[in-house]
Amino acid sequence: MELLKRYLARIDFDSYEDFYANYAVNAPDNFNFAWDVMDHLAETRPDNTALVWCDEKGAEASFTYAEIKQLSCQAANVLVQAGFARGDPVMLILKRRWEYWPVLLALHRIGAVAIPATHLLTSKDIVYRCDAAAIKGIVCVDEEKIMAAVDEAEKKLKQNGKPALYYKAFMRSVHSTGNPSEKEKTAKGWIDFKSQMESAAKDFSRSAAINTSGDTMLLYFTSGTTGMPKMVQHNFAYPLGHIVTAKYWHQVLDRGLHLTVADTGWAKAAWGKIYGQWLCGSAVFVYDYDRFVPAAMLDVITKHRVTTFCAPPTIYRFLIKENLSKWNFSALNNCTVAGEPLEPEIYERFKESTGLKLRECYGQTELTVTVCTYPWMEPKPGSMGKPSPGYDIDILREDGTSCEMGEEGQLVVRTARRKPWGMFEGYYRDEELTKKVWNNGIYYTGDMVWKDEDNYLWFVGRADDVIKSSGYRIGPFEVESALMEHPAVLECAITGVPDPERGTVVKATVVLAKEYTASEELKKELQNHVKKITAPYKYPRIVEFTAELPKTISGKIRRVQIREKDEAIS
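Given the sequence above, the corresponding structure tokens read:
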């Protein structure tokens, strides 16, 4: 709480209206999360738990704030000795290993640019990122497939006449056997980062010119449902934008334990696995797994007595398929959901089993919590909630005029009067793309929404995903929500298919629950089910069953891939 008093004008609010009008952040000109937050916590509560980690193989570890500070100082010494300094871009491919946290903080300490990345990248992906961001070094997990992809990428960079990687380091896991393969890796130009970190000095002094708050701290490559990934640029003040995330959305507890289900390669990890949580004094819980098993996740949540939990709808979709009465959720105080719209069916099933109301939120890698269901608000299942403080939200028609209540339009953020804390600086090295989405004091999200009579916002779909059929505009989310209420449907995606009479017809691509079998009878049953729940004209005239849906490497459904496939066939 003492940190919040340092950075917030007020902490407690009487209502959503009070919160929206009076929430304000006070930030210094050279804010640095590692020095100003982590070190403060290490000094004022050195023995308090900062990070609790476990993996699917049974390994466990726990770290205090003092220990995290020391580890990050050791990692900073390794990086400085290797030649890294302020402004140098370094990619981290560390999955959910606990080492991610001290290495990320070490990059903050020296004023470098951290580029978190997923372990699913191919050598082609790595080449693109290295070239686009002028990446100087990579620290990755000690997995042969990932290291081979990095080696192949470095080879291609050299062949293309691009600068080679200055630095390659691998991070030994807790399960490493110390066999000769470690020496072979080092011989190929790889540095054993963990070994060097363990022998490095435990103190690291702050330079007077580490950074300004406006310097670039993070670059995130968006997974993108279309086109090449964009480089989202966040500055050193970005962590302060996530006080709202942790304090007022996650509602983390001082000395509590928060779990956000996200790989460290994605911006959601910045939302839920470090900045806002530590600013609020909550420990971060990390469950490190390669294969998601719902029962196993429920086991670790209840065993470790997680107090607050956040996950995408997909996770909840699988959790409610379990017999939740087998687990004790008494430690859980609040559960949240983001990433994609939540189907009301999931909300109701989870509430029945746990007594907890899922609180939704909307945001983007470019933004922070933009629209949210805050503590003073009653959740409306399927609604994103209301605008966050600092965000001047509007809904625009194609002609740029504001929509009326109930009218669908594109969600925008007006920034002429104020720029929200944590909003991105632009797309790195791409001024043209930045101006395309952010011009004349308006940032265009690309998402279609509408507002109800209580000023709650409802997601319709990406602008490119909205279907126009026989003069009607049909958002995919409403139809997907209707389908999800049928027990046969595990996942689904709604897209438009070209049609000579109607222009476009609605198509449902469906992944069935394991106890159901595809048939013509089931297709008709699903179509009739949708007709009963929503306007009949929205029902899917085409139903296709599939084993899995095409997704980005961050797990978002790629409806564009389904559309492209159908257009190629037609």
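The first helix runs from residue 2 to 7. Try to locate this feature in the token string yourself.
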